[in-house]
Amino acid sequence: MNGLVVDSVHFAYGGARALEGVSFQVAPGEVVALLGSNGAGKTTTAKVTAGALAPAVGSVTFEGQAVSGLPAHRVMRRGIVLVPEGRQVFAQMTIQENLLMGAYKERRRARVKELLERSYETFPRLRERRSQIAGSLSGGEQQMLAIARGLMSEPRLLIMDEPSLGIMPKLVQEIFGLIRRIAGTGVSVLLIEQNARASLEVASRAYVLEKGRIILEGEGRALLEDEFVQNAYLGAEN
Ligand SMILES: Nc1ncnc2c1ncn2[C@@H]1O[C@H](COP(=O)(O)OP(=O)(O)OP(=O)(O)O)[C@@H](O)[C@H]1O
Ligand SMILES: [Mg+2]
Questions:
Q1: Band of the pLDDT at 102, cuts 50, 70, 90?
Q2: Residues with Cβ within 6 A of ligand 1?
């Protein structure tokens, strides 16, 4: 397959097992949701896929080439970008400097300018505040900045670890609309979420992770109707 193939990945933090045979795929231009409760192994899966952690067993293949075992910066060069949990913008740098960090590997100045312009068109709020220190932005604005910085690298696989966490519903809708548009340009998106309803509406397929194992997979729409998923993940708070 041409997109992402994660095959039977095992990972442990010291003696503590976090992933026990995780397998899933994301096709080019597809949005795939990865759901699961706290501690299920979602962030660990994101980090293994992005090369921040090396799997003990199993493999990660992207566009037909193995990426597991490569250091994170080389995985990034292959087009895999992780927007990490909790944003992690460079708080002491300005918004524009943060965005430029996302395009550090692009040597063509004109292209960097185009990418910057595209970010500001997508996120007008960032343009208004481009000279402001990133640490002074609100949580939601920092999340937008983290996403915009990820897009500056022109990923072919974008992994987003809980982009809606702590964000007001209206902005969540904006972010999910953006995810749809990104996928529409042929980029694969792995969307890690606890907001099951919104992510199942945007994803074509989804996987449910529990205690380091994929326990369920299916089409987004079908999982929305699934009784187990409704009981476990689509409670009143969603
Ligand atoms: N650096 C670490 N050292 C030791 N154990 C860890 C470490 N990071 C995560 N774990 C453990 O691995 C398991 C999976 O954690 P992970 O962060 O992948 O879960 P998650 O699904 O992202 O949870 P959340 O929804 O809370 O973000 C948990 O039991 C967690 O305690
Ligand atoms: Mg997590």
A1: very high
A2: 13, 16, 18, 36, 38-44, 85
